[in-house]
Amino acid sequence: MDITPFIPSDRQVIDGYGDGQFCISGVWRPGPCIVLPDRTLDWDVEGFESLSLDSFAPVMAAEPKVEILLLGCGPKMQLLPKALRVALREAGVVTELMDTGAACRTYNVLLSEARRVGAALLPA
């Protein structure tokens, strides 16, 4: 019995991660990236501490709009500064923070449920 969730072939699936890179739909990409259902973008950030509202511009510009953004913080979950959390919420970005491995797995589950999910991933 196959229990793999059905995900349409035109969607970006996170196949793996490790050693500072991510495998998205069969293609290994080094460094941080933003994964949306229809495309994957390089994410020009230095690390968690460097995140600002501008860092999330590609997510805010995505069409269709992302329902939920999973932020893979690296090897462990961290909290965004309050001002950034408030600014993201005011910009309409619902953000869930978790370690990067959890963000990768959760992204695939939500994608299989046909949710408009995005993942902003920092290497673990």
Report on the biggest sheet. 5 strands, mixed
Q: Tell me the Rg in angstroms.
A: 14 Å
Order of helices and strands: EEEEEHEHEHE
| Corresponding CATH architecture | 3-Layer(aba) Sandwich
Report the β-strand fraction as a percent range. 25-35%
The CATH topology annotation reads as: Hypothetical Protein Mth938, Chain: A
Structural class: alpha/beta
List the helices and strands and how they pair.
Layout (H helix, E strand, L loop, with lengths): L13 E5 L2 E4 L2 E4 L2 E4 L2 E4 L14 H5 L6 E5 L9 H9 L4 E4 L1 H13 L4 E5 L3
Parallel strand pairs: 6-7, 6-8
Antiparallel strand pairs: 1-2, 2-3, 4-5, 4-8
Question: Could you write a compact summary of the structure shown?
Answer:
The protein is of the alpha/beta class. 22% of the residues lie in helices and 28% in strands. The strands form 2 sheets. Strands 5-4-8-6-7 form a 5-stranded mixed beta sheet. The chain has a 3-stranded antiparallel beta sheet with strand order 1-2-3, with helices on one face.
